[in-house]
Design goal:
Elements lengths: L2 H22 L19 E2 L3 E3 L12 E3 L5 E3 L7 E7 L4 H16 L5 E7 L4 H11 L5 E3 L5 H5 L11 E5 L5 E6 L6 H13 L3
Parallel strand pairs: 5-6, 6-7
Antiparallel strand pairs: 1-2, 2-9, 3-4, 5-8, 8-9
Length: about 200
């Protein structure tokens, strides 16, 4: 086989792999390094961790939706607390593998003014309830597949560009940090971001 033909075949294979990855909607790479304490300049650490200096944060993000149990969610009810928002769907592999750590962290901070909510981007209520039961998830999820309103609320500079994405809102409802990709390779990163937001004034 000639060198030129081999090159064309390799390029075609790479294109196919990239196309499949794009269609899956999942981020398959883990974060590459531990989040480092710094000077809060809105930098990106590792492959997908962004922290926004308090003075540089935009307006509060307000979003509403219907939860898997049929009740209503309004982010205004969480003002004064730190709110962790996780964008996911079933059967996104990275979403599944990070679930155990998200659940553990949600329980750890449950009595410290930290709330968790999922935003499910593709599934119906029955699928979400089945997922929660299978993986032991106790915090609720918004069903966002039909209208995408919750996703649209985060359509600014720090929107969720990949699935999964986890966003930390400060006590005023502003985006304080974003993790693109699964948190399971370094769950302490999310804990550090939560604690940083907790330490801020109201």
């Amino acid at each position: 086989m000639g060198r030129a033909r081999r090159g064309r075949l390799a390029a075609s294979a790479l294109t196919a792999v990239l196309a499949v990855s794009a269609l899956t909607g999942c981020t398959l790479t883990s974060l590459q390094q531990q989040y480092q304490d710094g000077d809060n300049k809105g930098y990106i650490a590792g492959s997908g961790v962004t922290e926004i200096k308090a003075a540089d944060r935009g307006d509060p993000v307000r979003f509403t939706g219907t939860l898997e149990d049929g009740s209503s969610f309004d982010s205004r009810d969480d003002l004064g607390d730190v709110l962790v928002v996780n964008f996911w769907y079933d059967p996104c592999g990275p979403c599944i593998v990070e679930t155990k750590d998200l659940e553990s962290i949600s329980k750890k901070y449950a009595d410290q003014g930290v709330d968790f909510v999922g935003v499910n981007t593709r599934n119906d209520a029955a699928t979400v309830q089945s997922f929660d039961k299978k993986y032991g998830v106790t915090y609720p999820s918004i069903l966002d597949a039909d209208d995408g309103k919750a996703q649209l609320a985060f359509s600014g500079q720090y929107r969720p560009n990949a699935t999964p994405t986890t966003i930390v809102l400060d006590k005023k409802g502003r985006v304080a940090a974003r993790i693109e990709g699964p948190i399971n390779s370094q769950p302490s990163t999310l804990e550090t971001l939560i604690e940083s937001a907790l330490e801020e004034g109201d």
